[in-house]
Design a protein that fits this description.
Layout (H helix, E strand, L loop, with lengths): L5 E3 L3 H9 L5 E7 L4 H16 L4 E6 L4 H6 L7 E6 L2 E7 L3 H12 L9 H4 L11 H4 L4 H12 L4 E5 L9 H12 L5 E4 L4 H10 L7 E4 L2 E4 L1 H10 L1 H6 L1
GO biological process, one term: intracellular iron ion homeostasis
Function: Monothiol glutaredoxin involved in the biogenesis of iron-sulfur clusters. Binds one iron-sulfur cluster per dimer. The iron-sulfur cluster is bound between subunits, and is complexed by a bound glutathione and a cysteine residue from each subunit.
Pfam family, one: Thioredoxin
């Protein structure tokens, strides 16, 4: 049984009311989705942590159902965690990183009240999302990046740039387009754009397309989920990938 400080958020108003009860209390917000397998594990981690830290408030937010809350925190993938004191951001944890979440909760739920926006305190928030090798890639010139992007786009006849992987998608659109491609019996390569910020931002510019997923066929952008779905419905897609 979940502890009394472990609450399923029902609406934006409900969310605000819960936070405003005590503006000195630490809140751990878990953005999750029922279709994302990694969320199952992290939901259990959050539930256990709520028992260990009864003074903190643990809020479960179904990311797509409560889209207004998700958008207010710029949530782009699940699972994602946001730790607040009142309305002040303490830390973010991206992905199914149980050790990072446990460490963050231990730090903030037992720490004395102090300014959460200090440079020192904010530094750990980015740690879970650091990608190995990014420091070296910072030296990459725009020309080198575009060359790398072209290679990624041409690694296979069909390439899906998505959030997460087909086995563990981290957004609903990525989940749906992966399923659509599988239903169409399409062999495709994939790239997790959350693993490389340079690729993520570079593709937006190169393809003049601001969102993900992006489906590439024969080295050229086809579009996102809506366009691919429309092409499947009209029969164009089978001709394109034949």
């Amino acid at each position: 049984m979940a502890s009394s400080n472990f609450v399923e958020v029902q609406s934006s108003d409900h969310f605000r009311q819960l936070l405003e009860v005590d503006l000195n209390r630490v809140s751990v917000i878990n953005f999750w989705a029922p279709w994302a397998a990694p969320c199952e594990q992290m939901n259990e981690v959050a539930k256990e942590l709520s028992k260990k830290y009864p003074a903190a408030l643990f809020l479960q937010v179904e990311a797509e159902t409560q889209s207004e809350i998700s958008e207010s925190f710029d949530i782009e993938a699940v699972p994602s965690f946001v730790i607040l004191r009142g309305h002040l951001l303490l830390q973010r944890i991206a992905g199914a990183d149980a050790p990072a979440l446990t460490q963050a909760v231990a730090k903030h739920a037992t720490a004395p009240v102090y300014s959460p926006l200090s440079k020192t305190d904010n530094a750990p928030a980015k740690a879970p999302t650091v990608v190995p090798g990014v420091q070296e890639e910072d030296e990459e010139s725009p020309e080198q990046l575009n060359e790398r992007l072209r290679k990624l786009m041409n690694q296979s006849k069909v390439v899906l740039f998505m959030k997460g992987t087909p086995e563990a998608p981290r957004c609903g659109f990525s989940r749906r387009i992966s399923a659509l491609l599988k239903d169409q019996s399409v062999d495709f390569a994939h790239f997790d754009i959350l693993s490389d910020e340079k690729v993520r931002q570079g593709l937006k510019v190169l393809n003049d397309w601001p969102t993900f997923p992006q489906l590439i066929v024969n080295g050229e952008l086809v579009g996102g989920l809506d366009i691919v779905q429309e092409m499947v419905d009209t029969g164009e897609f089978k001709e394109l990938v034949a």
